[in-house]
Fold:
Amino acid sequence: MTPSNIKKIAILVAILLMPSLFYLFLYTGKHNYTKLQYYGNKTAVLNEDGKYDTTYHTIPYFEFTNQDGKKVTRDDLLGKVYVADFFFVTCPTICPKMATNMVYIQNKFEDRKDLRFLSITVNPEQDSVPVLKEYAKKVHASTTNWDFVTGDKDAIYDIAFSGFFVNVAKDSIAEGGFLHSQLLILVDKKGHIRGYFDGTVYSEMKKDLTDAIDILYREEVVPLKGKQKEAINIGK
Structure:
């Protein structure tokens, strides 16, 4: 075998082994990214082997209707990373900024077909299906993976408080008649809240939320082990 052929074979073997070696390095070595924290209550569950597993707060079941008149439930979003917020169509203050920044994130990750967006109206009495459909067009949202939803007012307010841990309220003094959080909420594929980001601040979208979404996807590829897994910063 000539030196030239040996060199070609060596290059071919290196190319074939590179992905496996790279994954092995990431899995066993030290990782240079931050593990996102979990928000909400945590519970230690005793297993049959005497060891404990920790369970974290998950978004409770909900069922709403989107801009196309289709049902959207909590279970539809399980298995997908998504960003959620609360808004109302006639909001004159923070909602336009939040929508603009959500569109930025949607465009930024347009190649992530499993990344979803969920905007829940706090004014369901006025924000009907046709109104939401028109609003989605107005803010230039792609509704292939972004749902603007309406539904029962009590159910919406309950999921805001007990599910996403944000405040919403009808307030005659507030501009537009409603108060609601300006936060964009990052939820992982198991329904755990993994981050809160100010939806009115573009720089926070461009850096912090973008980085957090990247980290969530890297967590799937590079699971942590041992002390690194135990070092997760758990939110309270």
Notes: The longest helix spans residues 3-28.
